[in-house]
Structure formats: structure tokens, C-alpha cells
């Protein structure tokens, strides 16, 4: 899908119901600039890869582009082969993220965090799809950590939850 300006880019995104894997945006597009389009796309979906391709080379321009939601930033002049490699890299990340989400929906017994998926039915950990057998304690520990993402857990909380109250655990555990 190709657009001459930011408004057209947004309209075309809506026409295909957001079915775009990677968007390459120029910051200096007419009507709506690439930053506005990037913010719009990112607000609509975290599943789309966004690359800023622009003549703006200042560090602050790059930082702003990344902060508003771009996954990568390429400055002009650029090598077409480098741009294609970056598009491929962003597409791979987006595809993995989308595949992990589909797997989680298809298997409600599976919880995914990053490259890891914990299968509650079979009590197996997967890293990038490869199974890793777990002991009961390892499974309980990962279960507790997976259920508390972005939470700082104290050592005593982890020990009490995984090993249980009153269970003696060596200081080095």
C-alpha cells in the first residue's frame, strides 16, 4: 500500500482494516507528518512494525521518532538493501509477536512472556517453540513469575509462594 501524504496513509490503513504488517513512514509527509501517522498507527495497534525513513538526521529527531512508536529509524540517503533488511527484521519481530498471540488464543493453557511460553496443561516451558522439561519446583517458580510480570518480588515472597511457609530453604537458594 502506498500513500502520497499522511492523511491518505491513515485512510488506506483503515481501508484494509489495519491489515498491514510493516509501515515505512517519512517524517516530512504533507498534510499529516510521519510522526502523527506513527502515533495514530501505534494507538490503533502494537502489532504493526513501523520504520521511519527520513532526511531528518539529528539525534533528537531519531529519539522523537522512536519515542512516538517507531521500531526503527533510517536516514536518507539510504541503501535499498539495508532498508529491505530492516523491513525484514521488523517483519520477523512482528510475525513472532503475532504468532505468540495466536498460540495463546488457540491454547488457553499457554502463557507467553517474551520468547518463553509456559504450558500449564503439560507443565512444559517452551523457548522459541523448543520444549524444556521442568521439575515441579521449577514449574511452580516460573508459574509465580509469569503471573507477576513487571512486579518486583522479594526473595521471601518467592520462597513462601514456591516452597511454602515453614519449609527450610538454604540461604543460597
From TrEMBL:
Organism: human gut metagenome
Matching PANTHER family: PHOSPHATE REGULON TRANSCRIPTIONAL REGULATORY PROTEIN PHOB (PTHR48111:SF40), REGULATOR OF RPOS (PTHR48111)
Gene3D superfamilies documented for this protein: 3.40.50.2300, 6.10.250.690, Winged helix-like DNA-binding domain superfamily/Winged helix DNA-binding domain
OmpR/PhoB-type domain sequence ranges: 108-173
Domain Response regulatory intervals: 1-91
Alphabetical list of Pfam families matching this protein: Response_reg, Trans_reg_C
Keywords: DNA-binding, Phosphoprotein, Two-component regulatory system
Annotated GO MF terms: phosphorelay response regulator activity; transcription cis-regulatory region binding
InterPro entries: CheY-like_superfamily (IPR011006), OmpR/PhoB-type_DNA-bd (IPR001867), Sig_transdc_resp-reg_C-effctor (IPR016032), Sig_transdc_resp-reg_receiver (IPR001789), WalR-like (IPR039420), WH-like_DNA-bd_sf (IPR036388)
Protein name, per record: Two component transcriptional regulator, winged helix family
One of the protein's GO biological processes: regulation of DNA-templated transcription
An example Gene Ontology CC term for this record: protein-DNA complex
Amino acid at each position: 500500500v502506498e500513500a502520497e501524504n499522511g492523511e491518505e496513509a491513515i485512510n488506506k490503513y483503515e481501508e484494509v482494516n489495519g491489515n498491514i504488517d510493516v509501515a515505512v513512514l517519512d517524517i516530512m509527509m504533507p498534510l499529516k507528518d510521519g510522526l502523527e501517522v506513527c502515533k495514530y498507527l501505534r494507538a490503533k495497534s502494537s502489532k504493526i512494525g513501523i520504520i521511519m525513513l527520513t532526511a531528518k538526521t539529528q539525534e533528537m529527531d531519531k529519539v522523537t521518532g522512536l519515542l512516538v512508536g517507531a521500531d526503527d529509524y533510517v536516514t536518507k540517503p539510504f541503501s535499498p538493501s539495508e532498508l529491505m533488511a530492516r523491513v525484514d527484521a521488523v517483519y520477523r519481530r512482528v510475525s513472532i509477536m503475532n504468532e505468540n498471540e495466536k498460540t495463546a488464543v488457540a491454547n488457553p493453557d499457554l502463557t507467553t512472556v517474551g520468547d518463553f511460553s509456559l504450558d500449564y496443561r503439560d507443565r512444559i516451558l517452551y523457548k522459541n517453540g523448543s520444549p524444556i522439561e521442568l521439575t515441579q519446583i521449577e514449574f511452580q517458580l516460573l508459574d509465580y513469575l509469569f503471573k507477576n510480570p513487571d512486579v518486583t518480588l522479594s526473595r521471601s515472597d518467592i520462597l513462601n509462594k514456591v516452597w511454602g511457609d515453614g519449609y527450610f530453604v538454604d540461604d543460597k537458594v
